[in-house]
Amino acid sequence: MLKINNLTVEIENQKILKNINIDIKTGEIVALFGPNGSGKTTLLMALMGYDKYDITEGKIFFKGKDITNLSIDERVKMGIGMMFQRPPVVKGVTVNDLINLAGDVETDYSQLSNQLNADAFLNRYLNDGFSGGEIKRSELLQLISLQPDLLLLDEPESGVDVENVELIGRTINDLLHENLIIEKNGLTQKQRHEKRKRSGFIITHTGHILEYVNADRAIVFIDGHIVCKGNPGEVLNMIKENGFEECKKCDQRV
Ligand SMILES: Nc1ncnc2c1ncn2[C@@H]1O[C@H](COP(=O)(O)OP(=O)(O)O)[C@@H](O)[C@H]1O
Ligand SMILES: [Mg+2]
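^ thats the input. predicted complex w/ magnesium ion below
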């Protein structure tokens, strides 16, 4: 699904990510851990194709195609979708406008919106005065309308209360299993797939979202390097007990 080869990313001539190598197979979920400023968001933004994130070395392959120089919209059309950590306020554009643009005007999103408890802000300007939970539910609604194959989830539970973490977590899990299929007449709950059909990265500090979305592997970033890889639960416990300093000890620089 995704192959990141020796990726180095600069922002304003400053090296942020250094020689990153990651492969993701279909159905695989990789949790990204790391202290603030370690480059987790930078990785997802570079995968998405934002031009501020300058790829100075390495390549990105998606579904076997070199996408390193493709534009954001081309990547989105190929099936990459992102849930942003801090999406901007866009006055003049409602959530409804955006999901109809991202998805399909003829599609009825009302059931999905209802399920995500999004009806109250559907006709408000994007993120304008939204609470933490509303921002994340709006992001998820947009992501589902795109039906991506690779999900880039940047702190989907940050600033969200416990109940909403569960709602967001379960909905992401359904999306990953293709149990949530949007068709012209609205939301279709397909027969449960046991195996995940979609892949993704999930950035989390608390790990709460991983109670609902099972990650296969964890990768720890420090200062733009991958310093540790392992079982998500074990890595998270190690970080909680000993902090990121402990991760440096198993520095693999892979
Ligand atoms: N637009 C930007 N301009 C300048 N520096 C940036 C920009 N975005 C991120 N950075 C810097 O890149 C580093 C990595 O940031 P980020 O990827 O957001 O970290 P994380 O998501 O792991 O907290 C930080 O030092 C941050 O200040
Ligand atoms: Mg971040």
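Helices lie at 40-48, 72-78, 95-102, 110-115, 132-146, 162-176, 232-242, 245-249.
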